[in-house]
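Moderator note: this is an archived Q&A kept for reference. The question asked for a predicted structure of one protein chain; the sequence and the answer are reproduced below.
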Amino acid sequence: MGIAEIWKSILGYEGAYEVSNYGRVRSLDRSIPFKGGARKHLGRILTPNRSTKGYLSVQLSDGERKSCRYSIHRLVASAFIVNPDELPEVNHLDFNRENNTVSNLEWVTRSQNMKYSARAGRSNNPKPTVVSQRLVRHVLDRKRQGLSQRKIAAEVGVSSSTVQKIWERGYSIRTIESCAHVSR
C-alpha cells in the first residue's frame, strides 16, 4: 500500500484551501459572504492550469473577490518541506514539472537549480554565440547599408539579440581575435 494522502492548510487561506503531499489542491466547504448574506460553497479538488513553461498552477480567492494564481510545486513545498535557510526556489528532482509530489521536490538556491539542470543536460539557457571576425564585419556592413537587426539576424542565422550586441558593443577586431578560428 502506498503513502496516504495528507492534506495541510495553505498559508493565508486557512479554512478555505488545502494542498496535499500528492500535489493536489482542494477548496473546503465554507460560507462566503455575498450581497447581504452568505453563499454556501462546496469544496472540491481544483483543476490546475498549465503555464507556458509547463508548471501547474491554481487560482485561489480570499472570498472578497481578490484572487491570485499560485504554482502548485511552491504550495506543496511551503506546506510540507522545511526551509530553515529560506532558499528561494523549488526544484523538481525528476525534471517533470507536472510531478508535484512532495518526494519529488526540494528547496534550492537559484545557482543550485541552474547547476542541477545543467548537469542533467536540461538547461533552458542556450550556449552563447561565439562571434567571428567575419560575422562582425558582415553585421556592421549590413547595418551601414540600413538593414534592420531582424533582417540581418535572419540572413546570418543568429538571434536578433546577438546582432544588437554587435551593434551596441561595437566589437573591435582585437576583442574577437581569440575567436577568429570560428567561422559562421
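Archived answer notes: The mean pLDDT is 83.
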